Amino acid sequence: MNQLLLTLRFYATGCHLLTAADFGGISKSSCHRIVHRVTKAIARLRPRYIKFPILPEEIKKTQVEFFNIARFPRVIGCIDCTHVKVQSFGGNDAEYYRNRKGYFSINVQAICNANLEIIDIVGRWQGSVHDATIFNNCRIRALFEAGTFGNSFLLGDGGYALRPYFMTPLQNPRTRMEQLYNESHIRTRNTIERVFGIWKRRFPILAVGSRFQKVDKVLPVIVATAVLHNIARQTGDALPPNDPALQLPVPWENILQEGNIVYRNDVPGNNEIQRLLINDYFRR
Fold first, then answer.
1. Less CB within 10 Å around the terminal CB: N or C of the chain?
2. How far apart are the C-alpha atoms of 130 and 1, rounded to whole Å?
């Protein structure tokens, strides 16, 4: 239990504010070994706590919960990427981790449900990689292409390509039904933005960064904190407040916004399903 508490303190600060008292007489090197060991143990719980709905009753339940937000039909998940700040790992590949805002990061793709739980996570790509590239190479995309989830939709922002199973917002809605489509889409997709905010407030190491010098030490932290986030959601844990002890140099909202990098997608997509959705469902 003491090792778990030490690990949670580490997640809450990134080791920036841990004092000698926090280590309980343990050396820093021993502390780091404990943190990495506990982190790997938590990350191994991923199959139990981070699960995409597969069974028909699971899919239907998820769709109904999303529908109750803003009446967008058939949604099974909302997707986006967020940047987890890291220090330079050095070596020949160091610059691949520098994102468009100039700092080093891991670009993490997550899909959430309506209860703000993470139901799929991909946390291994460098900060310079485009959101759409991550999706194009992920397992969930292959499952959607294979028709695993029936007529379900993913909702994402305009940085992704429009697909029969992937709805993005309209850039210039003109008619009332197009405006209704966009409004419903944006309100529903906001769940993933809320997830990122809650996740990073609960585990500030994701926002303020860690001092790990190797990427293989960072990646398990991303998965482990996602597992703990879901456990907190499922047990009704209170939303995390701002932590004044962090003594952040800039406001939380600015730090959270740093993790959101807007990408444009200029590749035209197949909008047949989107047009049918707007002209049929949203017309009514």
1. N
2. 39
Tokens of 18: 């841990």
Per residue in 242-251, pLDDT (tens digit) is 666 565 656 6
Cα 172 from Cα 141, distance rounded (Å): 27
* Neighbouring residues of 245: CB distance < 8 A, sequence distance ≥ 6: 17
The angle at the Cα of 101, spanning 90 to 135, to the nearest 5 degrees, equals 85
Other CB atoms within a 10 A radius of the CB of residue 181 amount to 23
Q: How many CB atoms lie within 10 A of CB 59?
A: 19
Give residue-wise pLDDT tens across range 31-45. 778 888 999 999 999
Question: What's 150-219 look like in SS3?
Answer: CCCEEECCCCCCCECCEECCCCCCCCHHHHHHHHHHHHHHHHHHHHHHHHHHHCCHHHHCCCCCCHHHHH
Is the model's pLDDT at 9 over the cut of 80?
Answer: no
C-alpha–C-alpha distance, residues 153 and 49, integer Å: 22
104-141 pLDDT, tens per residue?
999 999 999 999 999 999 999 999 999 999 999 999 99
Cα dist. 33→3, 22, 99, 180, 273 in Å?
Answer: 10, 15, 29, 52, 51
- Whether 186 shows a pLDDT value over 60: the answer reads yes
What is the secondary structure of 125-136 as a DSSP string? EETTS-HHHHHH
Is the torsion defined by CA of 19, 24, 26, 32 positive or negative?
Answer: negative
pTM given for the model: 0.91
